[in-house]
Structures are given as structure tokens and as C-alpha cells.
Amino acid sequence: MADTNQNAGRPARVRLGMVGGGQGAFIGAVHRIAARMDDQFQLVAGAFSSDPDRGAASAAELGVDPSRSYADFAEMAKREARRKDGIEAVAIVTPNHMHVPVALEFLKRGIHVICDKPLSASLNDARKLVRASKGKDALFVLTHNYTGYPMIRQARAMIEAGELGEIRVVQVEYAQDWLAEPLEETQAVWRTDPEKTGLGGATGDIGTHAYNLASYVTGLRCEALAADLQAFVPGRRVDDNGHVLMRFEGGARGMLWCSQVAAGQENNLRLRVFGTRAGIEWSQEDPNYLRVGALGQPRYRLSRNGAATGPEAGRVSRIPAGHPEGYLEAFANIYAEAARAIIAHRDGSAPDAAVHFPGLQEGLEGMGFVDACVRSSKRNAAWIKPAF
Amino acid sequence: MADTNQNAGRPARVRLGMVGGGQGAFIGAVHRIAARMDDQFQLVAGAFSSDPDRGAASAAELGVDPSRSYADFAEMAKREARRKDGIEAVAIVTPNHMHVPVALEFLKRGIHVICDKPLSASLNDARKLVRASKGKDALFVLTHNYTGYPMIRQARAMIEAGELGEIRVVQVEYAQDWLAEPLEETQAVWRTDPEKTGLGGATGDIGTHAYNLASYVTGLRCEALAADLQAFVPGRRVDDNGHVLMRFEGGARGMLWCSQVAAGQENNLRLRVFGTRAGIEWSQEDPNYLRVGALGQPRYRLSRNGAATGPEAGRVSRIPAGHPEGYLEAFANIYAEAARAIIAHRDGSAPDAAVHFPGLQEGLEGMGFVDACVRSSKRNAAWIKPAF
Amino acid sequence: MADTNQNAGRPARVRLGMVGGGQGAFIGAVHRIAARMDDQFQLVAGAFSSDPDRGAASAAELGVDPSRSYADFAEMAKREARRKDGIEAVAIVTPNHMHVPVALEFLKRGIHVICDKPLSASLNDARKLVRASKGKDALFVLTHNYTGYPMIRQARAMIEAGELGEIRVVQVEYAQDWLAEPLEETQAVWRTDPEKTGLGGATGDIGTHAYNLASYVTGLRCEALAADLQAFVPGRRVDDNGHVLMRFEGGARGMLWCSQVAAGQENNLRLRVFGTRAGIEWSQEDPNYLRVGALGQPRYRLSRNGAATGPEAGRVSRIPAGHPEGYLEAFANIYAEAARAIIAHRDGSAPDAAVHFPGLQEGLEGMGFVDACVRSSKRNAAWIKPAF
Amino acid sequence: MADTNQNAGRPARVRLGMVGGGQGAFIGAVHRIAARMDDQFQLVAGAFSSDPDRGAASAAELGVDPSRSYADFAEMAKREARRKDGIEAVAIVTPNHMHVPVALEFLKRGIHVICDKPLSASLNDARKLVRASKGKDALFVLTHNYTGYPMIRQARAMIEAGELGEIRVVQVEYAQDWLAEPLEETQAVWRTDPEKTGLGGATGDIGTHAYNLASYVTGLRCEALAADLQAFVPGRRVDDNGHVLMRFEGGARGMLWCSQVAAGQENNLRLRVFGTRAGIEWSQEDPNYLRVGALGQPRYRLSRNGAATGPEAGRVSRIPAGHPEGYLEAFANIYAEAARAIIAHRDGSAPDAAVHFPGLQEGLEGMGFVDACVRSSKRNAAWIKPAF
């Protein structure tokens, strides 16, 4: 927040641009708060809207210099790349189908990309992006923000350390109700348009989160899935509920449920993993705790920054146990990891070994998951091997 | 508990016999407490064990007259049927494969049967029993005891009254961990022996409960299912974990998970149902409450005997809201319903219209469910129409 | 439930009478279920109501022989004492002010008493009973039923074993809302009449439970208290809310809150105890768990009959962990303890060392608590040493 | 975060300085995140530590220009007041005894103060500040941060609207365990030194939060209190546990418990308020929900930004229901309110009527609460009227 970025004591903030996220957009505001939380980014440019007036108004509201408010993302990429003080990274918060074309413009100019999920509207687009990014000297960060929750880091560390034994069963679900009634003409215009959101509706929007979370925590990839997708709301063109059986590498089995028509559910992302020795349970709506049940022991509850919670959670926590952190802090953790990587990249060094974030591979797997679900469901829930 | 059964003020207690349930058997003791709870039954005879000494010792411990302690259930059926004061009903609490042969002996003599679940060890046996019971003047009660919970009655009444709208999604699960390690030689001898438990392991033991509960509450039958069953514990001969996709009549879809290897889970039977207007959630481990989330309203919690909870729950509750009832009270509700029906049956009348309990049809559907799961899983989770 | 009580395998059931508990009375029905639960009692006589017709009708409904249905409790005591098969114990479930006169009639004839709480309507009455019972060869059991909960037994055992260290703080509360509005003329006639209920309203009815629970679990007695009592409902003649500061022997301090006007509360009896090493938390509305937080460890949850829960809880549990027990089972545990003591008493032996139940001393302490609260509150919350 | 503050679209960020909050200080970092969250502040100056080297290092780390890093807060006040671009507001995050002397230096120069709580180390100091601030044209914001939680705003609005009826009972508690063992020489040097923390230990540090929260939500002030304070840890010079009876204006009664020795408790601040019509319950460790129980209705749960939650909560929420916000967001809401007031103050206008924050009066009441607790406890829990 200081005028200068040049003090000896700290690296300069990362100069950030944004594509999308104009007035009224939910996720753009979230990205900006996340970027601000730890004071590692500085928003200096943007193509905030495809509507130039709205874009300019957004820029003004955000304190972005009018000369760096662009009507067109390609123009922005070109001109920012030429500036000495041009952006180092761009946050992409557009509808899904625009992620890839926007990302390509910036990546090819060596500008790092922080992109909202899912990676794309189609598996083909995702593959195209992966191919195009080969050899580019720019980072790609996909905001699978739930992997930023400290207790999710804790869960992953415990599984990696073998505390659960061999994984047998994975139960993951993400249930909402905001699309329980037709909102096609109002709040959910692009979210329910297969051209823009992609072939998966709930599967793409939240099923990818659930899949990513399960895979991130367990370290396992799904080898085959069988999906039964539904569009319950009359006239809906994409799925709004999905039931998926999963078989993971190594023999673990799982179920995934994603729904946007589950009346009474807000953002109920919940993960349970059971191994030969212990099981864990975590819920996004109560994210500061991880419940653990080990064979022959009473269940216990690990608390963020509390007793027996490990350094993997601690390094992404800001305040003491019992003071809840939430969604924005978890989202900010993805940005903080990105900042660490970008700052290290400035002089070609590597960030601390603990730094990690979801990227192109996770994005590709997410699109492979959606693609496999849609194909399986069309074939009456036949088993499909996701193409990763 | 009085010496006499002949007071004007109340009908005589139902004279009850028991097959199985000798010393050390868990479920026999539960049936006896359930029968005692509301003072409608009197245990007067039994063939408590296939081991005659253990049977006699059990009878003595239970205060059953030695002359009515039988070494053999067929003998018991014959002799009790001849007595003027012979048993009116028999509780069958043997291993699964004995349910049908025992039931047949009593039913054919007009003695009512109260039988533990599942109905049998095989679908064929179940069908045989259903055929044989045709035209018999005796009641058959299957102790799907979870349907005795007041808040389950409440949930069913709400759905029947249309408060949830049209049902879209059913999520049901029953997770335990008591078979997470091999107990084949100790606690789970017959439960893991396909000859005695049937082809389904977890599916038969607890999957049938989960399926029955979902069907009871929603009033819907499953038209097709796709099951992926596993036997995770090395050497196990029956499934110990099952993942099932379900399609219900009328278009609802569901998932069922049953597991006996879910480390840290005790008896986590949980049902969630979502309709076009509202969703509900209930858990056996916290059974005195029903959580309801209706579109556009704050979530609320109905409490047994509390405000806005209806008569269907009230008629099977004993104590005020805030004083928890549990598993035994719910089990006793099945016995209380049976007593009402048996007492009415004495003079050929019908019990109150509200009286109901699971019976042969539910038992048949349970075995159809297990059979379909096993067949589907063998065919790689192909869709199977359960044979009901 | 068998016709005969004389089998070798088990001691004969305790012959039980009841005073009070006629049709419509809540607590009488609870006592009867509790007595039946473990099949150790046989209800054979009663003076169920001060209204003879209602008494007779109740007897008929309960299957009690008309010749042993009495219009008068003194008559009942006299005649039952003369019978060879007369009652061995009487359950007293009358309004508070009748507890002592009824108990005296039976105790003096050597008939054991199982009495509802509080012990009396006044401290003087309580003292009179204690004096009168000296030298009588009869047991006195006071149904402070919450001490029958397995996890309360567990809590007590842990504290006795020093697992919490030295006790510092006790927080206990019992909150209801059933008297939030005037029910003086309908449901709460005697409960709000100081002649019948005693000088304490909420303090006598539920405050005594809270105090007893705290004292039972910690093993500590209150040395001084300061109480601020209120009668919030206009026209109420007894307190309906009480706030109490407590100082325990050994230096622990506590707070007690009892309320019958806490809108939205059902039977929220909750105890928390904190020592130098660990703290525990238990709630009657979720009674199958005990939460434990030890310094430097993650919080854990002991489950009835679950891992690491001790034999003190196990011996009063009936079913596996995860299958909830509730209020009636806890109440039945008091009856079961009473039965063990009564049966041992038959031949002058002592019951197992683990057997214990609340009795006259606890009753006296409860009345001392109420008396001290009332006196303290009248003196503007001055510190009072309860007279025990 | 932009270089310039001068865009038409938004008011310039508030230029902020900080006193205290150098490296390793917990609460300073919290204030900075809170200030950044909504991008309304710009940290441009500081006297971060009484140790000049640590102060300079902190400034460098925070990106504050070395020329505006001061070794002395009085010097800072003087020099910043002279600059055209000097700070508009100062955040005071020192130990308690320094709050007043620091605040006075800035207030007298017309620089707004955002001060951590409690207001001072003594009631006298608090009064001195209140007197000195009379007629000063500067705002004073006290970070009683829990009043920034959306559901606390909701609770207050409901009570103000009469939804609970007339308030009868207030139960509030704040329990921690971080001082359960002696930390006098390490983590809690100044917190346990009466010269620096003030006469109240737990009462000053967290009891003031609990009192403020109860008073803020109910709109009631305590007219008299009786306190029993303890210092359980051997050698401790200030209280570490306090039990307080309260009498509020209008007849409501309450209890307050604050403890820093409650083993197993993290930051358990919990408020329950009961009125003639309904009761509410809120917990800081689960802050996104408000539980409501109205007479004759099932309990319901209001969710931040969820159905039926009002605009008072909505205006201080950032993200949809089901995505948890936490401690930092609530803290940031105090800063956001401060920013609105400061920005309005620039041109002498008033902020929106909904804008409010704790200030000197609340600070004075907090110190009056501590003072009354300490005096009452010394007089054996005599009733004391807090001096506000």
C-alpha cells in the first residue's frame, strides 16, 4: 500500500492486470481481495469488461490508471508487454470459454497467468493451451482455491505421511441450491449456456472443484469413472446434478456428488477419505477443523494453528486457532503461493520447496473429468477412463 | 410386569417366543428390551441357541420356564402351537440364512413372526417365504428398526404431504468401521460367511437398512441401480464396501454408500432427500432432529416432540423434546406397532390406520436390492432392475 | 415378563409399588419404563392418584391387580408390609411436598424407596427425613437421573483418576423455555405453587439437577454460593431463572445458570469442567459423547462404548457406539443400580463395589442448595454457605 | 494498490500510520490485513517499535518509506501533522498502557485514531482521554472487532426491531486456555504485568470484548455487577478467570464468564440472549450463523448472506452464504466503517446513517466494566455500579 515498491526490506509487489471482473462480477472481486490480503500484488491494469464503458468505470472504481484500462484483452497484452513497468501477471476472471484465448495472449508474451477454474470450456481447448504453453517462460496458476485451505493442506500432509494407511474410499461432494429454479435469463446466463460454460454444468462449475480437492488431498488420480448426470430444471441445457462412481489408481474407490439443485445447501463442499488406519473429514462450511477417526482411538479434531496441526497448515495460516479464517483467506493462499513463485522467477531462482499451486496439469485433469462424466453419462454411466 | 394379564383395563400382553438370541448375542438382547419398553409383550418361550446347554442357561437367565426352553425351533413351533397359552408371536434373531426356515415353521401354524433383517440370505429364499406366506393368517414384521425413529416418521409425513415438492435427489449412506480389519475368525464368523450371511456382506447387513430407509421416507422404489462393490480386507469373501447409483420411479436419482471399513465411523446412517421445494437431512447418530432447508428460507431444525413436528412423530415418542430418545426406543416402536396389530388381530379387527411396520414386501425389496447390487457389480456396475 | 420369578438362573424381580404417576403424569411413566428396561422390577401395587377413580383406572391400564390398587399411600404401606408377597420397593412420583410424608410411611416399614427429585419441598422436610431414616434398614434412592448417563460416569471417572488435574472452573447450566409464559393455571399448577414445589422454582426443579451433576462429576461440594434469582413471568410466585456463583472446596470456582424462560431451549443441561491439565464438556441433548480438550493436544470426543471410553461408562451401556442411548436409558441405569442394591440387600450382602446411586445425602445437598440460593437472593446475592 | 490515489472514480485511500505492530506482533499484522482488505487505506508511516532497529526493519518489510519510519510516536505525530501528505489516521497497536498517551498526541493534531482495545490500562486514563478528546475534530475508533461480524449485526438488528421481545437473560462468555500455565516470562510478558495491561487480566483482555458484545447486541448497559475474579496460575499478578453477575437497565439479568485458563478452549466467545419471544445464540468460532429459537417455532439458523438475513448483515458481507468469512473480515469491517467515516469527514459531510463503530464511549464503558469487576471482587463480589 506504500507509494514505493523499492524498499530494500521486501521484494517489490507483483504488478498485476486483470481480464474480466468488472462491476457486479462476483469472482473478480474475490480475486482482488485475495491479491491484496498479503500485500504482494499491485493491480495496475485491466480489461475489466467487454463493454468499454463498464470497463472504464470499473477501472476508475478500482483506482486503475485510465491509460491502463483496456477495452480489449489482446491490446492489453500487447501494450503491457511493451511497457517497462508492464504487468508481470494477469488474473483471468472471464466466463469459461474465454480462459484459453485470453491466457494464450499473455503466456506467449511471458506474462504469468492466474486463471479462474475450470481451465476451459472444452477438453480440446484445454489441450490446446497445454500444448501452446510448452516452452513458454511463464507460470500458470489455476485458482482451485479450496486447495488453499490450511486444513486441506493438513489432510494432504497426513495422507502423504501415511497416517491414514492405504487409501480405500473417497467420498466427495459439492452441493448448492442456487440453480434449483430456472435462472437462465437472469443470474446464470452464461453459466447455463453450453457455448460459454462448456458441456458440463454443475460438473464443470463445482464438480471440478470436488474432483480436484479429492485428487489433491489423496495424491491419487481417477483411472475410470461412471457418471449419471441430470438436468432437473426444465429447459436446462447443461447438467445441474451429477452422481459419479470413481476408481482410483492403486485400488481406492470413490463417489462424487455435485449438485446445484440441492435445496437448502449453500456451498457444501465436503471431503471424506478413509484408509486402512484412519479416516478424515473436512467441510468447506466449517473449514478450520479437520476431523480424524483412527481405528481404536477416539475421534479428534485438528484445529487450524492448534495443537498437533502441522507446518503445512501453519505456513498458510495468519491468525491463532479459534479465530476462524475462511474462503477469502484460502483464496489468498493461492495468490500468496503464486507471488512466491513469481518473485522467485524474477531472477530465475526457485521458490521454497513448500510452495505449490494448481496449474495446467490440474486444469487438464479437471477438463478430462468433465469430459469423461459427460461421455459416460451419454453412454448410460459406462466406465470411462478420463483423458488427462 | 404384573402377574396377571387379565385386567379389564388393558389387553393382555402378547405372549412372545424367541429363536436365537442366547447369551452374548447382541441383537437378541435388543429385541427383548424393545419388547419390554412399552409393556406389551411377555417372553414365555424360546429356542435361544443351537447349543442346548447355552439355550437352557439363557432361558434361566431370562426367567423363561425351563419347560418352554427348547433345543430346537421346529419342536418349539409344534409344541407352542398346541398349548392353550402358547406363544402368539415369535422373534427370530438368528443368522440370516436361518430366518426363512424358522419363519416358515411358525407362520404355517398361525404364529406371528417378528424377524430381524435382512429377510434371508438369498433372494430365492425370500421369494419362497413370500409364496409360502400367502393365505397364512399370521403377521410378518421385519425389524427395519430405523423406520421406528420419530423424525424418520416426520420426514416421511412431510414428503407424503408434498412439503419437499417433487423428489429429485436421494443421498443415503451407512458407514461403520467394525470390519476394517479381519475379524473373520472372531467377532464376525457368520457375518463374513456367504453361506450364512448371504451374497451381500455390507450390502446385506447395512445396505439393506439404507435402502429401506430411503424407500420408506420417500415412498419411492428404485427402478435401476448400478453398483460397484468391494472387499477391501484381504481374504474377505463378501463385500465390505459398496457404492451404488440409483434411479427411482418418477425420475429421482440417488446414491447409496454402505461401508464396514470406513475408519472412524460408528453407525453413521444418514439420509438426505432433496425436492423441488425443500431438502431434509437426518442422521442416526443424532436422531432427535430433522434438518430442513427450504428454498428461500433459513434452515430449521425440527425436534422430536418439539414445535411444528407432526403427529406421525408424536405418536411414537415417549418423552418431551430435548430429552433424547435413541436406538432402543426406535426399535421398540417397531415392537409397539407389531403389538397393536397383533392385539387387533386377536379379534379380527384392524389396528388404527396409523399403525404400520416393515414386512415381507420390504424384506423382498431388500433382498432384491442386494441381489441387484451383487449382479451389477459382477457385470462392472451395469444397470440392473431390482427384482422386487 | 415371565409368569414366574423363581428360576434358578436369575434373582426374582424386585416387587415394586408406585405412589403417584396416574394417567397423564409424565414422570410416573418415565419411572415405569426405566423400571422395565432391564427387567429387574415388577410393578404389582400402587396408589396412583389422590383421585380414587383415576387411581383405579390407572391401575387397570397398567395391569396392576385391583386388590393392590390403593386410594391412600399410608394404607398401601400398611397392607403391602403385611403381605408375604408385598412390595420390596416403592417409587414415589408425587409433587415435591409429598415426597417426605410418603417416604416416611414406607421407610419405617423397611420398604425401599425410589424417590423423584428434589428430595422435598423444604430443607426442614429433608432434614426430618434424614433423621427419621437413621437406623432404618431400607435403601433410599433419589432419581437424579442424569447421573445415570454413561458419559457422565466417564467424566466422573476421569476426574477421579486425575486426568483433568486439579479442578479450577465448573460451568453448569440447565435451560428450558416451557415456563416462558404463564402456565400457572394449566400445565404448571403445582410446579409454580410454593406450597407444593417448595421455595425454589427453577432452582428446585432443574437447578438441583445441575448442582447435583456438577457435584457428582467433580466430587466437590459447594462451600459458598451467591445467587441472583428472578421471577420474570408476571405473577409468578417462584423463581423461573437463577444465576449463581459458586465456590467449591479446594478452591474451584463455578457458575450455575438455571432457567425455565430461556426461549428456544428444550432441556439444555450442560456441564463443563476445567482443570489444570484438561477440560471436558457434556450436553444432555447430545449425551453419547464427552468432549475433552487437554492442554497441548487436539480436542477429542469420547463416544459411549467407543474407543478409550472406560468401564465405568461401559457397565451402564447397552448397545454399541454410534447407536444412541438417551434419557430413558440413563434413567433406567438408576433403577438398575437400585435393583442391584436391593437384590444384594435381600440376603444382607453388599452389591458390587461399582454400584452407586444418589440417595439421602444428595437429596439433602440439593435442598441445601435451593435454600441457600433463596436466602442469598433475598440478601442481594450475599455469599451463603449451603447447609448440607 | 495502484500507484495513484487520484482517480475520479473513487475517493483517495486513507493515509494511515501505525504505532506499535513491529515484527512478531500479532495484532499489528491483523490491523494491517484489516486495513488492506477493502483497499481503503494506505500504510505510509509508522513508529513500529520502541526498539529503533526493529522499527526500521519492520518499516522496510512493510514497504514503508524509511523517511517515514519513526523511532518515537510523538515525533511521528508532529512530523506527519506538518506534511501535506501526512497521515490522516493512526492505528495504535501498543500494549494497553500506551494507548492513551499515544492517542493524545495524534488526536490533538486532528489525526484520527484507530485504537486497539481495551481503551487504556486504567479507568482514570480512559477518563483523561475522553476529557481531552472533547472538541477535537478527529474520530476515535476502538477495534472491538467482534462487533464487525455480520451475524452480530444481524442479532443487534433483530433485537432493535423487537423480534426477541423484551430482553430477560444475557449469557456471554469468552474462554481461552493460552494462559493456563505460567507464560509470564515468555509470551505474556506485558499481558500479565498490571502496570502495562491494567488491573484486569482476563477481564481487561477478553472480558471487555464479552461485555462490549453483549451491550452492543442488546443495546443495554449494565447497571450493577458482582464479580468473583481469580488468578489460578501460581504467581500470576492479574486475574485469569472471572465470573460476573450482571443487572442491566430495564430488568434484564446476565452472567459473564471470561477465562484464559479454560483448558481446551481456543477463542470461544459466545453470546446468548433470551427475550420474552425468542432467544439467539452466536459463537465466534462458528461466526457465519445465528441460531434463533422462538417460542412455539422450530429453531432456525440464519446464515450470513442467506435467506431472511437482513441488510445490516449484508452490508458488511463480501461473499455468498456458505462461503465462510472469519475474524479478519470482521476486523476489516471495523476498518471499512472507519474509512467511510474518515472519507466523509474530509469534506465535513456525514457518512451513511448505517455506518457505526465502537468509540470512546464504548472504551470508557469497557474500562468501567474492568474497574467495577476488580472492585467488586476485592469486596467479595459486592454489587458495584460501573462508572461509565
Automatic annotation (TrEMBL), chains A, B, C, D:
<keyword id="KW-0614">Plasmid</keyword>
<dbReference type="InterPro" id="IPR036291">
    <property type="entry name" value="NAD(P)-bd_dom_sf"/>
</dbReference>
<feature type="domain" description="GFO/IDH/MocA-like oxidoreductase">
    <location>
        <begin position="152"/>
        <end position="280"/>
    </location>
</feature>
<dbReference type="InterPro" id="IPR000683">
    <property type="entry name" value="Gfo/Idh/MocA-like_OxRdtase_N"/>
</dbReference>
<dbReference type="InterPro" id="IPR055170">
    <property type="entry name" value="GFO_IDH_MocA-like_dom"/>
</dbReference>
<protein>
    <submittedName>
        <fullName>Gfo/Idh/MocA family oxidoreductase</fullName>
    </submittedName>
</protein>
<dbReference type="Pfam" id="PF22725">
    <property type="entry name" value="GFO_IDH_MocA_C3"/>
</dbReference>
<dbReference type="InterPro" id="IPR051317">
    <property type="entry name" value="Gfo/Idh/MocA_oxidoreduct"/>
</dbReference>
<dbReference type="Pfam" id="PF01408">
    <property type="entry name" value="GFO_IDH_MocA"/>
</dbReference>
<feature type="domain" description="Gfo/Idh/MocA-like oxidoreductase N-terminal">
    <location>
        <begin position="15"/>
        <end position="141"/>
    </location>
</feature>
